[in-house]
């Protein structure tokens, strides 16, 4: 395959992945209304695990080594447990557009953890950009919270940080296991721990949930939790991580758009301005120069 063709396919897969991820918060907002936080946040993993297990068995994927298993736990804690559960809880009380602005910090959090894991020192430009983006998000949250941060805001910020760590660890691990295999094994590892809590929250009233609630839960289980990662990692494999990861900056605006279209949320000019400030700061910070720690410095730490 020619390089130009690979890059175009990479951009296409990457864009598909971002669109899929952008629909996660709107789908979560609908699902938690009828199924609650536990089912929407953890139940999706059990459904996804069935699909993933079939794929792993059919493809006869090699089992992770003990050391890889430990690192997969980090990925599972972020992408499979922490992020779904925290965002599901936050979406019970916050509008999707609110969540979109705060989760715009995700690429910056991912870059920060990647720098730490690689033993690199972020430049002053990175830290300034991080502070500006963080302050913009805090001002936005305070504005909508009438002068105080809500617990849901803190949950979303924690979700971004946890998923950033998970992405950074998963990115390194993908070089050994393969791209989509990382999230696949993380799902399989995490799902058994969720069976009991999910089972305790199952009720017959859920059968009366409308069709759009079931579609939302199915979307979270099949697309958000697995297929979106397949498209995203495939895009980066074809087009290059640096090039394809830039598409992620569209995600907050796509979330806001989908919230308007599917949930009839009213989007204010203030929301759009803050979103632009955050995304621009994230772009500058993520592309800021870094320096390597010297070996002597690293051994003394």
TrEMBL record:
Residues 9-139, 151-284 form the EamA domain. InterPro entries: AA-Vitamin_Transporters (IPR050638), EamA_dom (IPR000620), EmrE-like (IPR037185). It is a multi-pass membrane protein. It comes from the Bacteria. The chain crosses the membrane at residues 12-35, 41-59, 71-90, 96-116, 123-143, 149-168, 180-199, 211-232, 253-284. Its main location: membrane. It is found in: Endomembrane system. The keyword Cell membrane does not apply. Keywords: Membrane, Transmembrane, Transmembrane helix. Belongs to the EamA transporter family. PANTHER family: EAMA DOMAIN-CONTAINING PROTEIN, INNER MEMBRANE TRANSPORTER. This is DMT family transporter. It comes from Halalkalibacter kiskunsagensis. The lineage of its organism: Bacteria, Bacillati, Bacillota, Bacilli, Bacillales.
């Amino acid at each position: 395959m020619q390089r130009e063709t690979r890059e175009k396919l990479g951009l296409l897969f990457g864009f598909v992945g971002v669109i899929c991820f952008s629909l996660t918060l709107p789908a979560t907002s609908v699902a938690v209304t009828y199924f609650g936080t536990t089912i929407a946040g953890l139940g999706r993993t059990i459904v996804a695990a069935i699909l993933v297990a079939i794929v792993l068995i059919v493809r006869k994927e090699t089992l992770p080594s003990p050391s890889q298993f430990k690192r997969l736990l980090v990925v599972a804690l972020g992408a499979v447990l922490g992020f779904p559960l925290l965002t599901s809880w936050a979406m019970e009380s916050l509008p999707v557009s609110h969540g979109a602005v705060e989760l715009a910090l995700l690429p910056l959090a991912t870059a920060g953890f990647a720098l730490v894991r690689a033993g690199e020192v972020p430049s002053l430009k990175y830290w300034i950009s991080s502070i500006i983006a963080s302050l913009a998000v805090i001002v936005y949250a305070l504005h909508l919270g009438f002068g105080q941060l809500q617990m849901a805001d803190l949950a979303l910020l924690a979700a971004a940080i946890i998923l950033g760590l998970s992405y950074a660890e998963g990115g390194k691990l993908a070089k050994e296991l393969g791209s989509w295999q990382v999230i696949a094994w993380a799902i399989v590892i995490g799902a058994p721990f969720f069976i009991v809590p999910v089972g305790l929250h199952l009720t017959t009233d859920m059968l009366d949930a409308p069709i759009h609630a079931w579609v939302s839960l199915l979307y979270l289980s099949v697309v958000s939790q697995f297929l979106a990662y397949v498209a995203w990692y495939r895009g980066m494999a074809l087009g290059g991580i640096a090039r394809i990861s830039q598409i992620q900056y569209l995600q907050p605006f796509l979330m806001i758009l989908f919230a308007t279209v599917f949930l009839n949320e009213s989007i204010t000019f203030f929301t759009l301005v803050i979103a632009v400030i955050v995304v621009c700061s994230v772009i500058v910070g993520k592309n800021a120069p870094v320096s390597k720690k010297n070996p002597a410095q690293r051994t003394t730490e």
